[in-house]
Amino acid sequence: MAEEQTALVVDDEPDICELLDITLSRMHIKAHTAGTVAQAKTLLTRHRYDLCLTDMRLPDGNGIELVEHIQNDYPDIPTAVITAHGNVESAVQALKAGAFDFVSKPIDLNGLRTLVSSAIKVSQPEEPEESSNGNLTLLGDTPIMRATRATINKLSRSQAPVYIAGESGSGKELVARMIHQQGPRASHAFVPVNCGAIPEHLMESEFFGYKKGSFTGATSDKEGLFQAAKGGTLFLDEVADLPMHMQVKLLRAIQEKAVRPVGASKEIPIDVRILSATHKDLAALVAAGDFRQDLFYRINVIELRVPSLREHADDIPLLADHLLSNLAKHSGLDHIDLSDEALDALVDYDFPGNVRELENILERAMTLCEGDVIQQQDLRLPRDLKNQLLQAPVDKSVALDPYLDTMAREAIKQALEKTRYNKTAAAKLLGISFRQLRYRLKKLEID
After folding, report:
1. pTM for this one?
2. How far lies 62's CA from each of 3, 80, 302, in Å?
3. For residue 300, which of 343, 228, 260, 251 has the smallest C-alpha distance?
């Protein structure tokens, strides 16, 4: 027979305690109640709890203090705080302190039951199946990658919004999927959305859905992305690309835990965890007035930075071996190897495109190489091609095939982006004269 599940309820209002006790008992969870922080701390020393629900305001302290105490001494107990309606600052403060989630007064019983069910899954996780994580592994044996995986594991136990920062190609979506898959929402949908890829006039209907007849062409009701992620995770990739009017609507949806489909007369409750990411400097956009500070404050409860490949270059041999094994398998080959010179060249390269660039380079090299060993020349690294592409005299035409033109264009664009389109600085970075750069810009039709 399974061990009885128990919850610690901390609130000095008898009516709230009774409501929570009744709700938990109907879920076959026994509740112990405490009216103060001191009483809660005493009960924690005497009993094992599967979760804790605590009010924010208590006679001898507050819920934050209790959250921090449980985080330090009983880290396996998921704790949710009960906040006053609309008190977003308290909710965010609790989540930053380590709270699993929060529920606002007046307490919505359906939302409470959902929260409790998720918390129970965290406190008593099932044994993972061998393939539960599939290929979702953030590879790397360096200390920074081990620390990142440990943080992902910790964040997966929470319901707090997480902002995932990192350069393009560093694996932000992979990290988001791992947080989802290792957490209590794993059995529900993970819905990724590229905020920069949705036409502005369609954003509201895509995010929130619409009712039949709400506009021309709306021949039936349609669920939005929030509804599609019900019970699961909504991953807002490139969140910095959201226009201002959608930032306002998204903020309301997150704060109220409800959305109003286009053409609907009332809001519908939503149960999703929000993860977001961008390669841009979101804090700088806030300072410039291009991103709402209140939305940034709400989605950036916890920030997780994904390391660039340059920060764990010692993992390149491991990553290259893993990627080549997958590429060979998908191509029907037994195996493909790297020569020592090719591996040395990869380790010495700075990979502005991170792991995604490494994968693209290896896939191209596998196609170009003869036999089953990739040589250094097969890699065609941008730096190895730079002299060939950029140092040619400007007074005569250089016959470059389309592939080399593409590589030259990419090298120049990267240099311009790194120097914020200062052409003199970009030319210096590329190791060519300003005149040569101007010639290449014109020849390659780069604006």
Report:
1. 0.75
2. 31, 13, 21
3. 251
